[in-house]
Every structure is written in C-alpha cells, then in structure tokens.
Amino acid sequence: MHLCDFNISNLRCISQTSVELDKGINLIIGENGSGKTSFLEGIYLLATGKSFSAVKRRDLIRDGTCRMGVAGVFVSSFGLESKIKLEKSYSETNYTLQGQSVRKTSDVAAKIPILVGNSRAADLLTDSPKARRDLLDRTAFHVKPSFLSIWQELRRALAQRNNVLKSGYSSNQLCYWDKLVSEKSNEMDAYRKEIVDKVNYFLTKSTLKEELGDVSFDYYSGWDTNFPLLQHLTSNRESESRIGYTLYGAHRADLRIRVAGKSGAKRLSKGQLKSVAFESIIALHEYISENGPAKPIFLVDDLSAELDNVKQRRLIGKILRLSGQKVLSSIQPDIMEFLDNEGHKVFHVKQGKIT
Ligand SMILES: Nc1ncnc2c1ncn2[C@@H]1O[C@H](COP(=O)(O)OP(=O)(O)OP(=O)(O)O)[C@@H](O)[C@H]1O
Ligand SMILES: [Mg+2]
Questions:
Q1: Is residue 346 part of a domain?
Q2: Sign of CA dihedral 95, 104, 133, 58
Q3: pLDDT of 325 above 90
Q4: Residues having C-beta closer than 5 Å to ion ligand 2
Q5: 10 within ligand 1 shell (Cβ under 6 A)
Q6: Cβ of 55 less than 6 Å from ligand 1
C-alpha cells in the first residue's frame, strides 16, 4: 500500500500543497518550524482520521481559516485505488472513502497499515498499557481481517456487561455477557500472543542485543491464565458490581519490556528507550509485511533527537531498507547520503511551502 497523490489545505502552517509521493522513499527536509511534522500529520490524518500528535481540532486548522482538508489516493500492490478525503471545520468532520461517508474510522484504519516513529515513540514503553494495546491491536487489524469484528464484539459485550453490573446485576443476565466476554477475549488473546512472539523473534535479530542484552516483551493477557477467564468473571461479580466495570479480560492486557532479564522501561535512558521503541515498531513493520495483505506506510518524524550518531545512522539505514513506502522528515540535508539509486523523492519545506 502506498500514498500517491496527496493534497493538503490549511493544515497547521501549510496553506495549500499538492505532491506526488514516491512509492519507496520520501525525504521531507526543512528547518525547525518549517512544516515537516505538519506534512506527516496530514498523511496520518488521512489514513486514520486521527492526529498522531494528539493535536486538538482547532490547532489543526490553519490560523485565520475555518476549515482544513487532506485528500489522497492510496494504491494497493494490485493497483487498486482508494480515494480518501478528510475535512475538519471547528465543529464538523467529513471523512470519505471513494466518495462515501466513513462511519467508523477503524474501518479505514484496518485497510491502510500505517506506522509512526516520532519523538513520542519512547512514551509507548512508559505510558499506560492502552497505548501498547492499541498498537498491538492495530497490527492485528492489518494482518487478520476478522480481528476488527472480534474487537468490536468484545467492546459491545463489555459495555453491556458493565451496564448490567451497574444496575444491580442478575446472574442470569450476566451469564450471557460473561460467556461472550470470555470467548472474544480468548480469540483476541491468541492473535495478540502470536504477534508478540513474532515481534520478540524480530527483536532477537536486531542489534539491540549487542547494546543492551536480550530485549523482549512480556505479554499479560488481562487475567491470570492459570485459570479460565470465565471463572474470573463469575467469581468476581460482586466486587465488579461495586466499581461498575469488568476487571478481567482482553481489554486489560499489557505488554512490558524486558531488558537483560529485568522487567520495566523505567530503567532505560531516554536514548535507550528510543532505540527500543523504534526497533519494536520496525519489528511490527516486519510482522505486517510478512503476514498481512499490504505493506505498511512508515512515517518517521524527528528520528535524530536523543540518539547518538552511530544509532541514528544504523536506524535510518534499517528503516530505508524496509519494504513499503517510507516518509522521513529531517532537519539535516545529510540524510540524503543514505539514498542510493532506488526510488526516492526529496521534498524541501520552507515556511509551510513544499517544493
Ligand atoms: N493552527 C496553526 N496555524 C498556523 N500555524 C501553525 C498552526 N499550528 C502550528 N503552526 C506552526 O506551524 C509551524 C510548523 O510546525 P511543524 O511542527 O510542522 O514544524 P517542523 O518542521 O516539524 O519543526 P521541527 O523541526 O521543530 O520539528 C510552526 O511554526 C507552528 O507554530
Ligand atoms: Mg517536527
């Protein structure tokens, strides 16, 4: 999958731009504040309907205007085109795929695999489990088409179960939801475990081992797997009804990084966290590329911060060798040294203008 024609209007500092991206490597070069992150943000917004930097709606819209828009054509490896358009005003969002309104952003996100490596990547390892679960689940969406519906069914079942718990539960009503939460959690759990095993395998092949020792993720299912989930759900109803939500299930899963036999990200320096986070995202990229129907688009913003020269060069080299479309931003024109004769385009950004 790659993004071909791409148009932006009134997104942050970018007033109007129209580019044709390369299906291989794209470098976006410009000084601080020129609009590099805004450009990558535009691609991510188009592919997911969401901001990767959690920028609020009003800050996405260029000052002095009342509406931003991104539009583009994603092309699959079989040449099938998906025309997507997203417009946001201060109060409305209009998101369309092939001219039809998109009801759920996850429907588009499941079609277009996209990964981001930016200055927030390291937070993935230290933030709450939700960010890691979401990344794992998005990976599953891209590889197993049925994962999305399992995930949606679990969310619906949990919402219903929580409602019953809050309204003074009856065992009869809960039995049905307990079974459904247990069934869907177990299906998600099997998918997720498979991904984590593969990611750990790719991590053993990375150069992290030389730098830090063995690096891998420990996966927690969201319940003590020595006992069936159904048993946890039926035996904890009383405590769950007091707090009004379900304590056990796939929605409580987590991934924790283990480095040289020690669990937890807090022990790592900022640069080490960034290396581990980027290698983990690269491992997800390799997993999706090998197992999914489409190769991911990889957006890399601000790779250099906190990494020494050797690590920067090693990671950039590795990212550029990945299959699929890559869009990398840099303040340093010397990133062009990495380019060989393979397909690439270089864009220069200055005060929101892209040439
Ligand atoms: N809503 C907005 N309207 C106009 N300009 C904005 C808006 N939001 C942000 N900007 C400005 O857009 C400019 C570009 O920001 P962006 O984050 O894209 O730069 P960058 O090239 O990634 O810089 P850096 O190298 O420092 O990361 C900044 O000067 C920022 O203040
Ligand atoms: Mg930036």
A1: yes
A2: positive
A3: yes
A4: 36-37
A5: no
A6: no
